[in-house]
Write a structure and sequence with these properties.
about 260 residues
């Protein structure tokens, strides 16, 4: 049984800490990059009721929330991965014949119920999970602590990830069932074969909900659809008439 030297332990710990800090900085940076232009455009287009000061405050609020949430989640995720990794390695390099309940419980969490042969487990890179389910537990903990609080920003992230996860799971299921990559020519998940069917199903369902049960749709989606599908040409005509009257009045005043 190999024993880690102090210099090796220090190197591994410093690498994991650098991965955690890198995730924190990367999360904050990406949150600002992705949310700032979106919040700026949406606020200028749809929040005309706000003053300039209120618009700036609104933009900064959502940008700060998005960036801080991504940074916090990335930090929690990487920290849990590092904790699991070092707990697993400690148990492997410091075996004990006597079985303590706490040690058995820790081993069950970090190594799983089928942990025979863990001394041959390949070393993972810093910041990466040592076992696949470590990422599941770390992601679930981070999701509960960071994204579990309801807000418009958090809801957008959850809905976005839900669609991506469903597509990813369907591709993974195809690979396991057929033993071929999802982009294989015979795969039903190929866009040329199924994209039109998916588009038809999604748009058919959303239009049924809009016409029959609009109250179940998100308010921003309903407002957008109202503006498109409930638009009255009479309102456009009245706007044009008001503009023409304004030009006429201006010309009369000038003469």
């Amino acid at each position: 049984m190999s024993v880690l030297s102090p210099s090796s332990i220090f190197t591994h710990i410093s690498d994991e800490l650098l991965a955690i800090v890198g995730a924190l900085v990367g999360g904050a940076k990406y949150g600002i990059k992705i949310r700032l232009p979106h919040a700026l455009v949406m606020t200028l287009l749809f929040r005309k009721d706000l003053s300039s000061r209120q618009k700036i405050q609104s933009i900064l609020k959502v940008v700060l929330e998005h960036a801080s949430n991504l940074a916090a989640f990335a930090t929690i995720y990487k920290s849990i991965l590092a904790t699991f990794k070092w707990s697993s390695r400690y148990l492997r390099h410091h075996p004990q014949r006597e079985r303590h309940l706490g040690r058995m419980f820790l081993k069950l969490i970090v190594d799983g119920p089928f942990s025979r042969g863990t001394h041959n487990l390949p070393r993972s890179m810093a910041g990466h999970p040592e076992r696949p389910y470590h990422s599941l537990i770390a992601g679930a903990c981070g999701g509960y602590l960071v994204w579990g609080r309801y807000s418009s920003v958090n809801q957008q992230m959850i809905l976005y990830l839900t669609s991506r996860v469903l597509v990813g799971l369907s591709k993974r299921a195809w690979e396991h069932i057929r033993g071929t990559p999802h982009h294989h020519p015979t795969s039903p998940l190929n866009h040329p074969k199924t994209y039109r069917l998916i588009a038809a199903a999604v748009w058919g369902l959303v239009m049924v909900l809009f016409e029959e049960s609009p109250h179940v749709l998100h308010k921003s989606l309903k407002a957008s659809m109202d503006e498109i599908y409930r638009f009255q040409l009479s309102s456009l005509s009245s706007t044009v008439s008001e503009a023409e009257e304004g030009f006429v009045d201006q010309g009369t005043n000038e003469t």
